[in-house]
Every structure is written in structure tokens, then in C-alpha cells.
Design brief:
Blueprint (H helix, E strand, L loop, with lengths): L1 H14 L1 H30 L10 E7 L9 E2 L1 H10 L3 E7 L2 E7 L6 E8 L3 H5 L5 E2 L15 E4 L1 H8 L9 E4 L2 E8 L15 E4 L5 E7 L5 H13 L12 E6 L5 H38 L2 H9 L4 H38 L16 H27 L3 H6 L8 H36 L10 E6 L12 H12 L4 E7 L11 E6 L11 E7 L3 H5 L3 E4 L12 E5 H7 L9 E4 L11 E11 L14 E5 H4 L5 E6 L7 H11 L5 E6 H6 L3 H35 L1 H9 L4 H37 L9 H26 L3 H7 L1
Parallel strand pairs: 5-10, 7-9, 16-21, 18-20
Antiparallel strand pairs: 1-11, 1-12, 2-11, 3-11, 4-5, 4-8, 6-9, 7-10, 8-9, 13-22, 13-23, 14-22, 15-16, 15-19, 17-20, 18-21, 19-20
Helix pairs in contact: 1-9, 2-7, 2-9, 2-10, 7-10, 7-12, 7-19, 9-10, 12-19, 12-21, 12-22, 13-17, 19-22, 20-23, 21-22
Length: about 800
């Protein structure tokens, strides 16, 4: 019987290609959208790392009132202390910063790889086995610094060497230092950072680390948290700069928490949105199939008269709906593939230090999800026509020429389906308006600087063989020549422009003449800049002076922002005050100095890390005075910044012949890269809102067209009794507006109900205004009027003579 039902359904769908195409495409969009969003959610939030017993992995992060965010990097001393004194971990390891490294392999062109420094026990703690070769051993790591061994990823081995075993023993040059390849990582392992693909690992014996630990069997994360809290309090004071800092353990079986923390709530919100979209598509299909079933009453009556049971009719209707959903699922998979590529590109447009590249791989879990969605939707939108077939009375249908089942109850049910579509569409279109408004407000946020007309150019002096002390004269020449470019107003250099995470390079300060208690201590961001930096970025100089090149060789000077002034020098002028930067043994990198700095200037606060963060205390140092020359040039232009990029590249080639330009962007794009989750939500909500409006219009058009066809005789009688074409059009439009306004009322209640949920998932979302609902409701009314136009015109053109003769 099943095969007979399938063959009959296929013949029926082939005879109605327009209906079949419309049904498959509307469902495919709903199924594809759900599959695309769920695949990203599963990859980022759920999929376990391909390591031994991933459920045992935890990440160690610190929380401190002196820092805006939890921080994942720890000094090597803290790592060694926790590694050697804990009783709850079978092993602790970690990863250094993942660097974009320019490497050179003899016989190949230079290329950029993602390099990660790790302790020698890294692969052993993760329980991984090499594809070929071996992993690191203690003898591969010197007493301090980095070793010269290297492990490459399987994907890099395949891409560059076509899985040639001769890669073992190859020399890879990084910063002109050779690294010897000793092994290849397992095929599916690319690192614990979700969205980041590591190509090369080298061992380290002293760098800052993100710490990962493996719980001993039987130890819970709560038990480990209790012991680590005690260990952290007992840590030697030389390693614990701030007693307020605490350590927290977070599950890491699905990867490190930063990306999951950043994208978890936006993806949950998008899952809710695409779920509503799929429900809307199902309701749309149910109304279309219900109208179509009502037109097939004579066919059903004949089938029953020939011996078919009601159960057979129900199974036939469900078979047709499941076939439609199955075909839609196949098209939806293609749509999901294309949509996922777009989503990944949006997510990959984030800031350089946190840009993610997600590879969504089809697996059994995702295939089962898509198949389950297809089956569920087929059953869901097939229930209404199936029930219609079940309650069908054949004798009545034959007697009334196919209209016996068209009772007031079923007409009410059909109208309710359209009203439900309108309500869901209003909710989705209103959500799109809210999220687009939120994105616009973020882009117009007071950042403390002017992001328009600023070009950012990043170079890599290390790859060109330059040391920092060799760059002072070439940099001054570069700045002079850049400022001479027509259309360039000013130029400067920094190591960290706003919204690039400058607050992560922070130190503790000691203000001369001011005594702080341990509880009052706050970390201060230390940023190296060149003269004219504040002018170039439009940061206001509120008091004092800017840096000059003449500061080099003189007593040390610094410029503070308002947040630092409020903390260290409240109520008094800070010009002429002196501060010293702590030598912090708990972190690596630049360690500070015992010699105090004289504050010579006060500048406004800027958003350094995140748009919504409060101002972070910041101390700016003159990079030419400190010999800490950085790699990012900023140029403020009076013209389109992109128009001078080629000239800037040529100037860099002329002055620093061996130094490559690694990145060219604008500060406006840098701001946009800070709000990737919000851009993702707004872009998709806009698309899904428009799609919802179209589906609602299709549903309303289908019901009105069916209604006009069913009421042709009634309309003919009305016109024979004196009704005009305008009266008939008004009748059809009145029916449409009743359904639309009922849907608007329900949609308004749904919008009010969903506001707390949206506010909990999107930070600083403003929901007080009624404008988004007005825009959403107005858009749906406009779509409804457009969808009603053709049926109303068709009703107005009914010839009463023909209609009555047919009756």
C-alpha cells in the first residue's frame, strides 16, 4: 500500500508543478535555515574535541575586579606551581598565543601559518597519538624559551606535502630560526580553540599560557574547583600580584570558552527565529493543502465509493505531505550549505585576534537532524488535510458536487491558519526592525574617537629581519612620507588600535605619593603610540601636550586617559604627576620599569576592548622614547582611505624593502569587526523577516483565491441582485483585513511576551519603543493588501450569467 500511495502522490505532484514548486521552495527555506543555524550551533557549542575523554577537560580562567573580562592567559610560574601541587588533575598543559607566523620552507614559497607554542606535555595530556613521527619530549624544550622541534597539523601536511612521510626532519624557518618537524598531529585535530585552525606547534618553556587540565577519573569539576581555590590562595606572593583575583574552572570538552561565550546567546536567538520561520512555513503549507483537499472532495468520494477506507485516505494525504517535506529537505540541504558559507564569512570578519573560521562538517548527527526536521514538518503540515480526509462524508460530497465538507468550522480553521501566519510574520518582522535598530545604534555609539576616514596598515618588521632598535629612523621617514601623500592629514603608529583588545596588555601602577590598599589596586592598560596618534584617531587632548620625537633620550613621559585620572588622581590635575609601572612576574612580555613616568597630557576615554565596556584606565607611552616600536600605521585622510592604500604600500617597499605589509583595513571596518554577533543577528533577522512576510502573503493569497473560486456562485447571485464590482472587491478585502487584524492583535501579544527573552540574549537591547512593531505591522498590512489585490479583482470580474449557468 505504501508504494502505491507514493506512486499516486508522485503522479499528482507532477500534474501540479506550480503548486509543487511553491510548496517545496517555501519548506526548503525553512528546513535549510534551521539546518544551517543548527549546524553552526552544534559545531561551536556542542561538538566535542577529537581527544581522549573530552568530558574530563577543563579550562582555567581568572576573574578579577580590576579586569573588564575574565582572562585566560597565565604566567609560566603559575602554570608550574599548579602543575606540581594539585591532586585533582591527571595533567595540566596549555597553549600560548596563536600567532600568524611567516614561515619559510626550503623549496617552497614563504607562507603564513597559525603557530602555537605549547608545553612539551601538550599532546600527551590531550591523549593524542601522532599520525606519523612523534610528539614532544622533555629534552625538546630548553630550560627557558622555545625549542627547535615542531609538529604540523594533518591538514597542512596534506595541503603542502601531499602526506609525504619525508616531511619528518624537514626544516621550517620561523623568524630565521629553524624548526625541525618531528611529527604530524592526528587527522581531525586542529586545536582546542573553536574556529581557529592551528598549522604548527612548537614547544615552549616560559611563555604565557591558556591553561587546560584533565580531571582525574572520578573527580568532579566542583571538587577540582575547591582544591584549586585553596592552591591559588596559597600561591607564593611573588606570583599573586592581586589577592582579589580568583580562579575558575570551565568545561572545555567542546573547546575553549571564548568563542562559545561570544556566540552562544546569538545562536540560541537565531535558533528561536528559524524555528518560528519553520512553523510559519508549516502553517502556510497546511493552509494550502487544506484548500487543495477541499477541492479534491469528488476525487475522495469516488475513491471511497470504490472501497477505499478513511484510513487509506489519511495515509495518502500524509504520504503526499511527507514526500513534499522530503523533497524540501533535499533542496534545503543545498540552501543550508550556501547559507552556512555566508554565515561563516560573517563570523570570519571579526577582529584579527579573535576571528574564527568554522568548518561545518556533515556528520551523522546533522543528517539525522535534517531528516528529523523533514519528517516532523511533513507530519505537522499534513495533519490538517489528513484530518479533513478522515472526517469526509462521501455521500454528502457527491450530492453537493464537492462542497459538502466546506462548513463554517473548516472556514474558521482556514482563516485561523492565515491569522497565525500574520502573527508569526509580525513577530519576525518586528524582531528584524529591533535588531537592525540595535545594530545602527552600536555603529553610532560614542567610541571616544572618530572611526571615519582612517586607514590602518600593518607591517611585519621581524620577517624583514629588523629589530626594534633599528626602526626609529625608518619609521620617522615613513611617517613623514605618508603625511606628504595628497589627501592624508596626519599619520602615526601604535601597537594596538582601539577595539583590538588593548586592555589585555595591562599592568599594575604605583602613583608616586599615593598609597593603595590591595583591594584598591586596578590594572591599567599600557599602550605604545607615536606622536600625533591622538590627532590621527580624533581622541581629544584635554590637558597638557602630545608626545614629540624630541622626547627620545629625555626623562620618561606618559599620557593618561580620564579613567586613569579618576582612579589615581581624583579631583586634582594629574599633569606633572608621576607613576611607576610594576614589574609583574605573573605575566610575560614587557615587564615595566622602576623609573617613574611624568604625566604630560590628559586625553579622553576610548572604547579599548568592547563597545559596551566602561572606560578602562589607560597609560600611553611614547614608543620612540621606549624603543618599543610597533607595527600598525594609522593615516587620517580627507579622501576615501582605500584610495591611498596603494601609495602607502609603495612607500613601505621603498623605505623597508624586506618588510611585508600584512594587513590593510580601515578603522570603520575595525569597529564593524567588534560587533560580528550583532551583525549576524541583524542580517539574518532582516532576511528571515522578509521571508516571513512573503510566506504570509502567499498564505493569504492562496486562501482568498480558493475562497473566491468556491464562492463564485454566491458572488454571481449578489451581482445579479445589484451588487457592483466595488462591492464585491470590498467584500473580499474585508475578509482579508479581518484575518490580518486578528493576526496583528495576536502578533502584538507575542511581541510583548518575547521582549524579556530577547533582552536576556542580546546585551543592551532597547525595547521600549513601539516604532519597530509599527513598522512590522505596517509592512504586513502592505503585503496583505498586495496579496488581496488579485483575488479581489478576480471576484469583481465574475460574470453573473456564467456563474449562475454553471451553478
Amino acid at each position: 500500500m505504501l508504494w502505491t500511495n507514493i506512486r499516486y502522490a508522485l503522479r499528482l505532484l507532477r500534474r501540479n508543478p506550480g503548486f509543487t514548486a511553491a510548496a517545496v521552495m517555501s519548506l526548503a527555506l525553512g528546513i535549510g535555515a534551521n539546518t544551517a543555524i543548527y549546524s553552526l550551533f552544534y559545531t561551536i557549542m556542542v561538538r566535542a574535541l577529537p581527544v581522549a575523554h573530552p568530558e574530563q577537560l577543563v579550562e582555567l580562567v581568572r576573574n578579577s575586579p580590576s579586569e573588564l573580562h575574565w582572562a585566560g592567559y597565565w604566567g609560566w610560574g603559575k602554570y608550574e606551581y599548579l602543575r606540581d601541587h594539585n591532586h585533582v588533575f591527571s595533567g595540566i598543559t596549555g597553549m600560548g598565543f596563536d600567532n600568524l607566523a611567516q614561515v619559510r620552507i626550503p623549496g617552497f614559497d614563504p607562507e603564513t601559518l597559525i603557530l602555537e607554542t605549547v608545553p612539551e606535555n601538550y599532546f600527551r595530556v590531550l591523549g593524542l597519538k601522532p599520525a606519523i613521527g612523534r610528539f614532544f619530549r622533555p629534552e625538546d624544550v630548553p630550560a627557558s624559551g622555545d625549542g627547535d622541534a615542531a609538529v604540523v597539523s594533518w591538514s597542512y601536511w596534506y595541503r603542502r606535502f601531499q602526506r609525504d612521510p619525508a616531511i619528518l626532519g624537514k626544516r621550517i624557518f620561523y623568524n630565521d630560526a629553524p624548526k625541525i618537524v618531528i611529527g604530524v598531529a592526528p587527522r581531525n585535530y586542529v586545536g582546542p580553540r573553536v574556529g581557529s585552525r592551528t598549522d604548527l606547534w612548537t614547544p615552549t618553556g616560559g611563555n604565557d599560557l591558556t591553561m587546560l587540565a584533565r580531571l582525574k577519573p572520578g573527580v568532579t569539576i566542583q571538587q577540582a574547583q575547591a582544591e584549586i581555590a585553596v592552591l591559588y590562595r596559597r600561591m607564593p606572593s611573588a606570583l599573586r600580584v592581586n589577592p582579589q583575583t580568583t580562579m575558575e574552572l570551565l568545561p572545555a570538552g567542546a573547546g575553549l570558552v571564548r568563542v562559545r561565550d561570544q556566540y552562544g546567546k546569538p545562536l540560541m536567538l537565531l535558533l528561536a527565529v528559524v524555528g518560528l520561520l519553520l512553523l510559519l512555513a508549516c502553517i502556510n503549507m497546511a493552509s494550502m493543502l487544506l484548500a487543495r483537499s477541499a477541492g479534491r472532495q469528488q476525487e475522495m468520494a469516488v475513491r471511497v465509493g470504490l472501497g477505499a477506507s478513511r484510513g487509506r485516505l489519511v495515509s495518502q494525504m500524509l504520504t503526499e505531505s511527507v514526500l513534499l517535506s522530503g523533497a524540501a529537505a533535499l533542496v534545503g540541504v543545498l540552501f543550508a550549505y550556501l547559507a552556512t558559507g555566508v554565515l561563516v564569512r560573517i563570523m570570519a570578519s571579526g577582529r584579527a585576534f579573535e576571528r574564527i573560521e568554522v568548518e561545518v562538517q556533515p556528520d551523522l548527527h546533522l543528517l539525522l537532524f535534517t531528516a528529523g526536521i523533514a519528517l516532523l514538518t511533513g507530519l505537522l503540515f499534513g495533519l490538517a488535510p489528513a484530518w479533513y480526509a478522515f472526517r469526509f462524508v462521501p455521500a454528502s460530497a457527491l450530492r453537493h458536487s464537492g462542497r459538502g465538507g466546506d462548513t463554517w468550522l473548516w472556514r474558521l480553521f482556514g482563516r485561523s491558519l492565515v491569522a497565525a501566519q500574520v502573527a508569526l510574520s509580525v513577530l519576525l518582522v518586528t524582531a528584524a526592525a529591533v535588531f537592525l535598530s540595535h545594530l545602527s545604534s552600536l555603529r553610532n555609539f560614542d567610541l571616544g574617537f572618530h572611526s571615519d576616514h582612517v586607514l590602518l596598515v600593518t607591517v611585519d618588521p621581524a620577517q624583514g629581519g629588523y629589530r626594534s632598535e633599528q626602526l626609529a629612523a625608518p619609521y620617522r621617514e615613513l611617517l613623514s612620507r605618508m603625511e606628504a601623500i595628497p589627501g592624508v592629514r596626519s599619520a602615526s603608529v601604535t601597537g594596538c588600535a582601539p577595539l583590538q583588545g588593548c586592555g589585555f596588555g595591562s599592568r599594575y601602577m604605583n602613583a608616586v605619593g599615593r598609597v593603595e590598599t590591595p583591594e584598591e589596586r586596578r590594572r591599567t592598560s599600557v599602550t605604545f603610540v607615536a606622536p600625533r596618534y591622538f590627532e590621527t584617531l580624533g581622541i581629544p587632548l584635554l590637558a597638557g601636550r602630545d608626545f614629540t620625537f624630541a622626547d627620545a633620550g629625555r626623562s620618561r613621559v606618559a599620557i593618561a586617559n580620564q579613567a586613569m585620572a579618576r582612579h589615581y588622581f581624583p579631583g586634582v590635575s594629574l599633569i606633572g604627576k608621576r607613576v611607576a609601572i610594576d614589574r609583574d612576574p605573573g605575566t610575560g612580555g614587557w615587564f615595566g620599569s622602576d623609573q617613574p613616568y611624568e604625566i604630560v597630557g590628559l586625553v579622553g576615554d576610548v572604547k579599548a576592548i568592547e563597545l559596551r565596556d566602561p572606560p578602562f584606565p589607560t597609560l600611553y607611552l611614547n614608543m620612540f622614547q621606549e624603543n618599543q616600536l610597533a607595527d600598525q600605521f594609522e593615516l587620517r585622510t580627507a579622501v576615501d582611505p582605500g584610495s591611498v592604500a596603494g601609495t602607502v604600500r609603495q612607500i613601505v617597499r621603498d623605505v623597508l624593502k624586506t618588510v611585508p605589509v600584512t594587513r590593510v583595513t580601515t578603522l570603520a571596518d575595525q569597529v564593524d569587526s567588534n560587533i560580528v554577533p550583532e551583525r549576524l543577528i541583524a542580517t539574518l533577522s532582516e532576511f528571515f523577516g522578509g521571508l516571513a512576510a512573503v510566506l504570509a502573503g502567499i498564505g493569504l493569497y492562496g486562501l482568498l483565491a480558493y475562497t473566491v473560486a468556491r464562492r463564485t456562485a454566491e458572488i454571481g447571485i449578489r451581482m445579479a441582485l445589484g451588487a457592483t464590482a466595488r462591492d464585491v472587491s470590498r467584500l473580499v478585502l474585508g475578509d482579508a483585513l479581518k484575518m490580518v487584524f486578528a493576526g496583528l492583535l495576536v502578533g502584538a501579544l507575542m511581541v510583548l511576551w518575547s521582549r524579556p527573552l530577547a533582552a536576556s540574549l542580546v546585551q543592551d537591547l532597547k525595547l521600549e519603543s513601539a516604532v519597530p512593531f509599527a513598522l512590522g505591522g505596517g509592512a504586513i498590512v502592505a503585503v496583505a493588501l498586495l496579496a488581496s489585490y488579485v483575488p479581489s479583482r478576480r471576484a469583481a470580474r465574475v460574470d453573473p450569467t456564467v456563474a449562475l449557468r454553471h451553478e
